[in-house]
Automatic annotation (TrEMBL):
Encoding gene per record: RMDN1
The protein, known as: Regulator of microtubule dynamics protein 1
Keyword Lipid biosynthesis: no
Main location per the UniProt record: cytoplasm
Family membership: Belongs to the RMDN family.
Source organism: Vicugna pacos (Alpaca)
Subcellular location(s) of the protein: Cytoplasm, Cytoskeleton, Spindle pole
Amino acid sequence: MAVAVRLGRFLPLGRSSAPAPRLHSCAVGNRGRCVPWRLRGSEVMGNPGAFKRSLLFSALSYLGFETYQVISQAAVVHATAKVFRIEEILEQADYLYESGETEKLYQLLSQYKESEDAELLWRLARASRDIAQLSGTSEEEKKLLVYEALEYAKRALEKNESSFAAHKWYAICISDVGDYEGIKAKIANSYIIKEHFEKAIELNPKDATSIHLMGIWCYTFAEMPWYQRRIAKMLFATPPSSTYEEALGYFHRAEQVEPNFYSKNLLLLGKTYLKLRNKKLAAFWLTKAKDYPVHTEEDKQVQTEAAQLLTGFSDKN
């Protein structure tokens, strides 16, 4: 991880080096022509008061311009410092995320929860959700964190609708909130979730996780229990639906974009092949999931589930 670049390397500490403004070399005549500006001796000596006022006006104009330059430079320095500060925070946040330091990451980003920077806000939504997913988090705390994460993701999207990550995490957080709002809300939200995953993929076709999440959406509705399908048909004229083949396409596409990027994608490839009754390919992907290096609690859970499914193969054989 690159060390954040310090502000002092780029910004001058002294005053602006811009040249001082020059007095106009001509004046506009009564016909609109530019004519030379002359101050003849008789004119100066004949009206010393006017001459003094002219000098005073010129001096004040110059000082006013210099003040404007200083204020402008200060504003630029302040704005640039703010940008560099946010960049530094984001670098720290990404380092902690990659290191699996979930709690430290949340503590860092929580200090900036009033920020209006979309990049910071969607990371805070992700961090809040990750804390909610920890095994040591109580059910009460988890619910609070899930709704908190949704609020951060919503603000990130409001600040920058062109951020693929804001769309992705907004969809994820809406999905999480559905667990607390009943089947009707969950099904209604599924349309919104799909829309934002598709937008995230459109904005960044190389983001493997957005593609993977679209695969989960398809897998979820492919295996929806019959009673939920019945409820969906009662509530909506065209309820959401999908197939295992469609889900498989997204999981493979994610793997093509970034091979072995996520243990759960390997697991779901194996589980989808199981649903399609292709045990040979199911065993191949489940073995890859079981052997995936453990970095997070989720990796550990994936490894355990993959091993159990593979054991089930052995028992049946």
